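ok here's Sodium:proton antiporter:
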Amino acid sequence: MENITILPVNPLMIIPFALLLLSIAVVPLINKEWWDNNYTIPSLGLGIIPIIYYTFFLKNASRMAHTGFEYISFITLIGSLFVVAGGIHITIMGRSTPHANVILLAVGAIISNLLGTTGASMLLIRPYLKANKYRISGYHVVFFIFIVSNIGGALTPIGDPPLFLGYLKGVPFFWLIGKAWHIWAFTIGLVLAIFYFIDLHYYRKVKEKLREEVEAKGEEARASGLHNIIFLIIILLAVFINEPKFLREIIMIAAAAGSYFTTKKEVHERNDFHFAPINEVAILFAGIFATMVPCLDWLELNAGTLGIRTPGQFYWSTGILSGVLDNAPTYLNFLSASFGLHSLQLDNPVHMKIFIEEHWKYLQAISISAVFFGAITYIGNGPNFMVKSISEQAGAKCPSFFGYIIKYSLPILIPIFAVVWFLFFRG
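and the structure:
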């Protein structure tokens, strides 16, 4: 990654980010129709404020340009996977029993490490929704986000963007599988167990006659548009291309275009495929990327004075901020701070080797929390909002921004993450 200049920022410049988060959380509760038609106004309106500040007041337009390039890479990856996955139609046998749902989510968690959380989410969310269409509820979508869109992708650099950045910095590709598989399996197991009992409770409430009819009429398992797997592989391989600049994005866009124009119309129709979900994600995250720059810069300049010294403290700090900021730069900032704590430099290969051998617990804590805590809000990870949007288009009633946090994240995820801290990072 190229070096960028970080200058001291006025703390007041954090306000646009806070206002955007409040807008995403509150405005849909007040007037959902207005929000659905006008979310571009707060997103782009607040996003332009830090752009003006960095360009004309800090004279550091290159910092914002760097974020702009990161946004282009982010939305190109998200968008291309969205298009390609939209050309693959998978029909499950229609028996959306609690056991079947647990198996599908567990498979999704594994696939997340091979296709990334975005790829796995886009591939599986539609068949998951259709399998549960006669009793789809908000908790189905929430647990899908928890497991497939976030926690599942914690074992490989392909799984989630922060881990890929760590790989580019010198973390061995298979390091996390060796050091974190047990934490991953323990956490996935806990979340799946909770989901199973919740799903079983509501499954039993569905009229027995309706259950029998749906299970008896289960559609024959089939898949169409499988040629798009080739385009999917091309996109995943392109992730590892760094030079020349924008070649990676050009390949991804070409793969998405190839997928879209070679996929039969009936496949798109069966998937209810349209561009509204990716449009919403693109616009909202344009504002998020712009407004979060002052927050990240302040964090990088002040991380050393925050008194964060133990792996457990890095676990909570990285995690909580990853839930409301982009987890990739948050991961890098705290990884850099942990290197500095031990008088090491992040971009020095020799220091990376020393860090992995002698202080690996810090890397383990930062990596796990950056991925896991992306599940605590809709904006914690790129696929979250997209899964929500696709689910709502399919008729699922998803919880609001605050409803997601209060009803699910706080009572379910935070206690689980606290247990993970107690067992693995407390010392």
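+1. The chain has a mean pLDDT of 89.
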